[in-house]
Amino acid sequence: MQLVTISRAFNPAEAHLVRSRLEAAGFHPIVTHELASLGLEGYAMAAGGILVQVPDDEEAEAKNFLAADPPADNSQSPAS
User: Fold this and answer.
1) CA 31 – CA 12 distance, rounded (Å)
2) What is the pLDDT along the chain (80 residues), one digit of tens a residue?
3) CA distance linking residue 80 with residue 27, whole number of Å
């Protein structure tokens, strides 16, 4: 199993948001380069970002999932 990068972020919150969306959809993502980017200011950009990776057999489906519009948030009640 080879890991492939499907998303790149420059802050940990964005990377983990992508990871959690993928996990909720049944994928097996990991976040890499996070600690290195936090260790030195500006290093995330110099190192190419914080990477979200999935197994290569999930790559195409995971990319399609991320490219699709996120579901609408229907948790708010309509205004009266």
Assistant:
1) 9
2) 899 999 999 888 999 999 999 999 999 999 998 887 777 666 666 677 899 999 999 999 999 999 997 666 656 655 54
3) 39
DSSP 75: -
What is each CA distance from 21 to 15, 24, 62, 70, 79, in whole angstroms? 10, 5, 10, 9, 28
DSSP 17-74: HHHHHHHHTT---EEESHHHHHHSTTHHHHTT-EEEEEEGGGHHHHHHHHHSPPPP--
